[in-house]
Amino acid sequence: MAFSITYRKLFEVRIIHRYLLQDDAYFLDQESAHLEAVDYDIREYIQIEPNSDCQTILKDQRMVFKQTALGFVVFVEAVETAEGVFAPFVKLKPEQTLTFSISTPNPYFHNLTNIRLKPNIPGIYHFDNFHNKIEDRYPSLANPYTEILTRKYEMGEVIQGSVMANTATDTDMDNMDIVAEDWDSFPDHKYATYNDRLLLSSRFPYRFSLTDNSGISDPDFILFDSNGISLETLSLTDGQPIDQHLLDFSHLTSGRYRLQIEKGNYYFDQKELFINDDLYDDSVWGIIQINDQSDASAFRLLDADQNLQSPVFEIRLLNRPTYWRYIGQEADTFLPNPDFDVDGNPSNHLITSSPRQFTRKFQALTYNGVLLPNPSAPFIHGVGEDKIYSEIYLPKITF
């Protein structure tokens, strides 16, 4: 008598990095075909592993984990309940959460990815399919963008306002309006942002984002629970300017909180936190958690009849924008035009007038009819300044 074991997809997580893509065609329905056509493989930049508890669950529930070029898939042993319809052979336990760590072995990952270089808190990224998920955000595991706050913004940060935007330069706290020269619009494809960088230990420093290095005196730190109820307030009153402060919430249970930091009308910041000493690991870039407890049906692993839905989740990553600064020979003298500004003494620095994003594909860029090189590696300069640059040294060229 023949005997066979059938495995079916329980769920998939795709990590889609814009750096690896040639164009925006991957946002169309033919996404998978496009990713394969451009030889997309995230494994050079990201490694994903189930943690020890997850490995135990995978074994007990007869599941198989497999990392792929697009991310990873978990398969489960299944039985056919109707023609073409399958259910897990071992009944899923809704309270069991599968936890995976994300590491970044590529040394250039942080440079080529649009993530904050000087964050306010040292959180790691956390993605899940069950916390505050709503149907119309499927298949994204990323959190919604935040509204604009009264603090300094890094070049490349993403906010929710009158437009979806990532900054072309730092935003001054004295003028927090979203203006064209400071922000670039782009379509909302639910990218991962600083708002997903929320997993922390119970003791962590908060670093102020200020337009100068003078520090801030007598700020208030207010902590709220997940329902918006104020739990405690820490008010510093010694009058001493500080640029960071160590916060200690070790007396609290693990869970979701919101931290609000304010100083009159001068400074206001707020951050969603997931405090969990057991889950936090600063040696990894992020954590993914998946279970079958979402209130949004599209994010669940099983349908109402406990059959497999096999959802395909996404984490989309933006590539980093930088100004490309071409450094010519000492005798070179460049003139500005609509595409380039000029700097240096003499005027031998040619700088793109707007940011350009790192991509694996060569980007055609010309000055006076001469095709210019792209950055040879995603090195960046000017971190902490108003603009972030990629520098390219030019040989002797006749323009």
As residue ranges, the low-confidence spans are 24-30, 162-166
Strand content: 25-35%
Number of strands: 26
Q: Could you describe the largest sheet, including whether it forms a barrel? A: 5 strands, mixed
Mean pLDDT: 87
Helix count equals 3
State the separation between the terminal residues, measured CA to CA.
79 Å
Overall structural class, as computed from helix and strand content, comes to: mainly beta
Order of helices and strands: EHEHEEEEHEEEEEEEEEEEEEEEEEEEE
What value does the Rg take, in angstroms? 24 Å
Structure notes:
- The chain has 399 residues and is mainly β.
- Helix content is 5%, strand content 34%.
- The strands form 7 sheets. Strands 1, 3, 4, 5 and 19 form a 5-stranded mixed sheet that branches. It has a 5-stranded mixed sheet with strand order 11-17-16-13-14, with no helix packed on it.
- β13 and β14 form a beta hairpin.
- The termini are far apart.
- About 3% of the residues have low confidence.
